Each structure stands twice: as structure tokens, then as C-alpha cells.
Amino acid sequence: MHRLIVVNGHPDPRQERFCAALTQAYVRGGKTGGWDASSVSVGELALSSLQCLAEGDQPDAAAAAMLSEIEQADRLALVFPLWFDKPPAPLTTLFSRVAPRKAHIVVTMDMPAFAYRSILRGPERSPMLAVPGIEPEEPVLIGCVSSISLEQRRDWLETLREYGERSRFGSAVVPSRVQAFADMIDRTVAQLWA
């Protein structure tokens, strides 16, 4: 059975965080799709573990176990919040020790997603996807995350479950209807914005 690992990159691992819920929805979908799917949470690493990684020292047992799970995954997905236009430092610190590979990226942000999506289509890549060693596949941008309704949150959870379910080994991630609609709106707004 192929292994799918979904990384919750939020430094706060509490289950009430939206990134944690998105991560678990992706894992549920992966299991439905026939994967041996599970998650790891960067926020569960102690500060001393992260400092050890940042200084280039030997990883402690917790960091080594998380790195091993990530390395053994056949397919990888990352869910993280955008902080000051880039991924959280603990996530980039952990992935500085991961061999280069492709991953499906899901980014939550307070700004409207279309503003960042237009940057991704331009000649310069945004630092928001700059996770060391990761080549992003089909980035999903969830904008205005602090103000979206409960119904919109449920829609996003269903979208992430669908992404997990459709994560077939060796095939690209297929966007859901919600994501396809978001892309259409983003393209329209970007054209009007220019």
C-alpha cells in the first residue's frame, strides 16, 4: 500500500486550528482513496528540536522520527498558514533536512487568495511557497481565513477531503469543483485588476 503523509505546518498543533482540521480532512480522503494515510504536526516538535535542526546538529528522537515519516512517504501534502508572506519558520527549518521532492501545498491566509494566486502565475514565484526542497504541485490557496463563514469552512474541508481521495499514486492532484470555481474567479479578478 502506498504511503501518504500530510504535514500540518502550523506551529500551533491544537486541533481547533483550521490547518489541523484541513490536515485531518486530507488524511480521511486519502484513506478513502486507498492510501496508508496519516499526518505529522510540526507544532508538536519542541523548540529544542527545532533549534537543533536549525543549527545543523543531529536531530533528536522526535525530529528524526518525523523526518523519517516524511522521507518514507510516496506522496506528500503540506498544509500551513502564510505568515508575513512566507511559510512559518518551524516548517522551513524541518524541511531544510528533507530530500528535494514534489508536494501538494495548501496555504491559508488572511488576505484574499486571488491577490496571491496572480503572483503565482507571474514570472516570479512568491516566497509563500518557498519550503526548502519542495516543488509545489497544484497549490491551493484559502484566503480570508479569519473571516470565512462556517459553511465556507465546511466547503474547504470537503475540498481537502476530495484532494486526499483523488491523490492517486503517480498522478497529479485533480482540482475539485470549488477549487476550479475559485481559479475562475481569481482569473477574472486578475484580468479586471490589471
TrEMBL record:
One protein family per Pfam: Flavodoxin_2
Source taxon at top rank: Bacteria
Matches recorded under InterPro entries: Flavodoxin_fold, Flavoprotein-like_sf
Gene3D superfamilies the UniProt entry points to: 3.40.50.360
Domain Flavodoxin-like fold: 3-99
Coiled-coil intervals, chain numbering: none
Protein name per UniProt: NAD(P)H-dependent oxidoreductase
Protein's organism: Rhizomicrobium electricum
Phylogenetic placement of the source organism: Bacteria, Pseudomonadati, Pseudomonadota, Alphaproteobacteria, Micropepsales
